[in-house]
Design brief:
Two copies of one chain form a homodimer. The first copy, chain A, is an alpha/beta fold. Chain A folds into two domains: 200 residues, Rossmann fold (3-Layer(aba) Sandwich); 91 residues, Rossmann fold. The first copy, chain A, is built from 13 helices and ten strands. In chain A, the strands form two sheets. Chain A has a six-stranded mixed β-sheet with strand order 1-2-10-7-8-9, sandwiched between helices. A four-stranded parallel β-sheet of chain A has the order 5-4-3-6, with helices on both faces.
Amino acid sequence: MTAPPTIDDIHAAHERIGGVVHRTPVLTCSSLDRLTGCKLFVKAEHLQGVGAFKFRGATNAVLLLSDAEAKRGVCTHSSGNHAQALARAALERGIQAWIVMPTSAPGVKRRAVEGYGATVVQCEPTLQAREDTASQIVEETGATFIHPYDDSRIIAGAGTAAVELLQDVPDLDVIIAPIGGGGLMSGTCIAASAMQPGIRLLGAEPEGADDAARSLVACERILQRSPNTICDGLLTSLGALTWPILRDHLETIVTVSDSLVVEAMRLLWTRAKAVVEPSGATPLAAVLSQASPIQPGTRVGLIVSGGNIDLDNLPW
Amino acid sequence: MTAPPTIDDIHAAHERIGGVVHRTPVLTCSSLDRLTGCKLFVKAEHLQGVGAFKFRGATNAVLLLSDAEAKRGVCTHSSGNHAQALARAALERGIQAWIVMPTSAPGVKRRAVEGYGATVVQCEPTLQAREDTASQIVEETGATFIHPYDDSRIIAGAGTAAVELLQDVPDLDVIIAPIGGGGLMSGTCIAASAMQPGIRLLGAEPEGADDAARSLVACERILQRSPNTICDGLLTSLGALTWPILRDHLETIVTVSDSLVVEAMRLLWTRAKAVVEPSGATPLAAVLSQASPIQPGTRVGLIVSGGNIDLDNLPW
């Protein structure tokens, strides 16, 4: 899948996944509005199945398989929310899933994936080992490999969150989403720019994994080397498919410090009553940042995702 | 106000407060469903203004004041969510609010009330001192006293949460709500029994503040003496107005231990991604309880409210 999805692909994905994924609510919160001086609309993807927007793309990809393909199952490598998302999407269709996870992944994450009936295959914690192990499984089983973000079906599914946000709140000035591999942000860009031409599109990225921000400045894709941030969902590099979409649509990327992410996370928990993991708090951190290009009075859509946290290991 | 509200009063309240309060979403969560064997529908009142259903009743009471009454303001005594709810409801109408709070109330709660523009008047931490101080303010200012639960306007407002829940999920088998003073539960009883005759109505109460459960067994109102529970929103006694409504409608009250409340609270945080305070987790604790009269397969509406917690002082 080397072509990016069109807005028609995203609308088709929205239709396709409707019976499986939640239409998540858009939350508003007067105390966050007072604090930021903006009118914030939180697309609450932490309330999505498996606690993350990843379930949209995984469901879309699994539902697009032919019956013959589906019979042979799906495979990916991930230690994050995509692992759970693909496992559950496969469970919903009643097909097999092999999830390659590094031995370094927490036991709780492995058990969550196994809880959805997937087969976890452990490997050494290097990208090479992950890719090799997944390739071997695909070769042996005929399973379809589903990349976590650099896949048109995944991007189309991710874009359906912005479709719902703009259907529910049609007159937004700007949408901000987090950037890891760029799947959510690129789907958001395609959906929002088609549905509301001229809408401002901003990315939020941790300072310690700022490959997308550096890529945008350099106007070429720069890979992420040795990331260092608590935003463990945003460590990866942009993909060959996602990068040009971001380059062509983003006004800018606001990079945020881990301490600002923790502040934003606490605000989401205490004010919006939303259990959001660090990665998911980056869009609010971007609004709070001194480097934010958002003026007071702006109507801001925030795509907030990732509610998978360890209550016994909170960052405060 | 000595007569309980009718279903017409509750529908009128719903219409009246619609422009001010949130219509909160109803959340579903497949992992909680698997865990309980039931189909759970969480009416997410922790996402209500001020983080609690209390904002519904306070808004209804404030909007029912005549212009002449409104000019003289409102008054209550509370160290809990009703204090914030009345302060904010008064702010929304642009009128004055005097909130009597015991000197023992945490500074963060006092500042939250002051943040809504209300005047906090401190007093000794006894019920007598609270009532005396409030009476004095009412006498001096002509403000209208708004009781936290034993008031028909408050009960009618509280009942609007059940109205929305049943509009969104019309075929529930049972609704469970927490019981403190009984305002939420009695409003829920009146609304649900009128909208869906025969629906089962259950209360959830902490073991350490089980006056309502004991009242139901004795068939007479028993006051709460020296409560001992982490559910700090459920410490008060039933009111003269709320008690007969509960007596006439409730199938039973499930009492739950603090440890089960903490377990339910953790599940709501980690599975439903909902920041809910201990009091608000009691309905889920009731479903989890070995004493629960809920059979597997039941469609259960849970009114979950109260998201006001201190992240630096969590009960685990």
